[in-house]
Amino acid sequence: MRNTQAVQLLSELSHTGRRAETFPPADVPTRSLNEMIPADFLAAQPPQLPELTEPDVVRHYVNLSTLNMSVDTHFYPLGSCTMKYNPKRHERLAKLPGIIDVHPYQSPANMQGLLAILYETQEMLAEIAGLPAVSMQPAAGAQGELTALLVASAYFRDKGEHRTKVVFPASAHGTNPASAAIAGFDCIQLPATANGFIDLDALRKAVDKNTAVFMVTNPNTLGLFEPDIAAAAQILHDAGGLVYIDGANMNAIMGITRPGDFGGDMMHYNVHKTFTGPHGAGGPGSGPIGVRDFLKDYLPGPIITKTTAAEGAVTYDLTTPVKSIGRVRTHFGNVGILLRGYFYLRTLGAQGVRDAAEQAILNANYLKAILAPVLNVPMGKYCLHEFVASASDVLKSRGISAMEIAKRLLDFGFHAPTVYFPLVVPEALMMEPTETESKETLDAFAAAVQMILEEDPEFLKLAPHTLPISRPSDVQAARQPVLKWTPCLRD
Ligand SMILES: Cc1ncc(COP(=O)(O)O)c(C=O)c1O
Q1: pLDDT of residue 6
Q2: Residue 319 belongs to what H/E stretch?
Q3: What is the per-residue pLDDT for 189?
Q4: Level-2 CATH architecture, domain 88-347
Q5: Is the C or the N end of the chain the one with fewer CB within 10 Å?
Q6: Are 300 and 288 a contacting pair, CB within 8 Å?
Q7: Ligand 1 cavity residues, CB under 6 Å
Q8: Neighbour-count burial of 238, counting CB atoms closer than 10 A to its CB (0-12 exposed, 13-18 middle, 19+ buried)
Q9: In angstroms, what is the span from residue 176 Cα to ligand 1's centroid?
Q10: Cis preceding-peptide flag for 219 (omega within 30 of 0)
């Protein structure tokens, strides 16, 4: 169980006259505030700053930092986010002076080592995607989506085609339609089959000569490989459209199969998820995109190129594709995260990457199996790297919702799974254990869920009970919308 002490604010810890530092008397003439600052800018009263000793301040912040949940401190099965352990070795390597001391305005001739690493990263990403051309500019998965859609727009514009629609399945991540709308497309959502998969008939009906792109996450957000992905891609290609694979779930398939091999024309990676860049709370991220050869001229630059001279000397350079849509980020992308991805891939090697995916799948299926007696998983007999349980039955029988389970898990020292996503599963709890978790951790987590489901539902409604803050006003706010406008993607 976690710290049960209430956290006091610095102002509450303050005692008049306490100081962290005492300064010797000034040996130069001093001036009062009134002499230095015009009266208009001075408040009637000086600000009431807390007065504290250095240990007071240090303990306050160190204690606050221990209240955070992170992959370094807790099991973090937040589905669709791949909260992977970040190996410390890669942190150390990414901070080597020869790498971090490079300034992006140095000439390429002056940073050949860094460019060699970035070039190799580009090549490995292309190989894992099965798509030959990569731009590492985008700084997040969502920005990768938007970038690829702008690439698609430029491609169709160049062909003289005015395609206005982007189609996606009901299980799509919210960033997919958001990116499509920002890129200026109309969003068409397809119904799912009863098993949660792409409905080919619905896709056939929706796709026509105005369809630019079909955006699909594969494995999908239920943690299941789309069995008809190749047939779906064929429908798009027959209509002259493109297939975008949202690569957020690459952790399940890296080294096993490739988006380029099952029909994808474009994809993004989430390097911060799949390849262990540390993330959470909004950043930092890295969302490179891979595309087929016929789309490479539209990519944002710079792309890292390699030239081998006749005598064998190798040079790396920065180039901008001829019809580039332009930059989407400064310099070469989010290099800090790309480097962690590079070291992850180099450390594991090709076989290790596949082993990691297989271990992630094994862990998810183990957790799914040991939770099966208490939580229903409506879609899929076996899952890939994650699965979506439903609290619908326990809500009906015992009045315990997905939210209650998630909140109470925090008391047991586990980060909550993703809840209420994907929307195709009612009372969804989406769990992604990742490859590094031990059997003991998974057993302890399942035991906690089992205990929670036997607790008093009234007690659960007030969980978490052991954290300094129980339920902030988000519950109330979520139930009483303050904003009143109706959604409209495009008119
Ligand atoms: C399926 C899926 N697609 C796209 C994204 C967006 O990625 P990012 O958070 O890097 O913008 C996410 C993020 O969770 C996701 O789960």
Answers
A1: 66
A2: strand 314-319
A3: 96
A4: 3-Layer(aba) Sandwich (3.40)
A5: C
A6: no
A7: 80-81, 140-142, 173, 175, 217, 221, 246, 248, 270, 285, 287
A8: exposed
A9: 9
A10: yes
Place of tokens 């991220």: 285
Residue 450: Cβ-neighbour burial (10 angstroms; 0-12, 13-18, 19+) = middle
- Separation of CA 96 and ligand 1 centre (Å): 29
Does the structure show a pLDDT above 80 at 282? no
Taking CA atoms only, the protein residue closest to ligand 1 atom 13 is 81
Mean pLDDT for 355-360 is 98
Length of the chain: 491
Question: pTM for the complete prediction?
Answer: 0.89
Question: With left for phi above 0 and alpha for psi between -120 and 50, is residue 335 left, alpha or beta?
Answer: alpha
Q: CB of 377 within 8 A of CB of 271?
A: no
Q: Which of 78, 84, 147, 175 to mutate to test ligand 1, by most ligand atoms within 8 A of the CB atom?
A: 175
Domains of the chain by residue range:
10-63, 88-347, 350-479
Q: How far is the CA of 248 from the centre of ligand 1 (A)?
A: 6
Residue 16 φ/ψ region, left for φ over 0, alpha for ψ in the -120 to 50 degree band, beta for the rest: beta
- Site to probe by mutation for ligand 1, drawn from 145, 168, 218, 270 as the one with most ligand atoms within 8 Å of Cβ, is 270
Q: Do domains 88-347 and 350-479 have the same CATH topology?
A: no
**pLDDT one-digit tens code per residue, 171-210:** 899 999 999 999 999 999 999 999 999 999 999 999 999 9
Distance 269 CA to ligand 1 centre (A): 9
CATH number listed for the domain at residues 350-479: 3.90.1150.10
Pairing type for strands 387-390 and 303-308 reads: unpaired
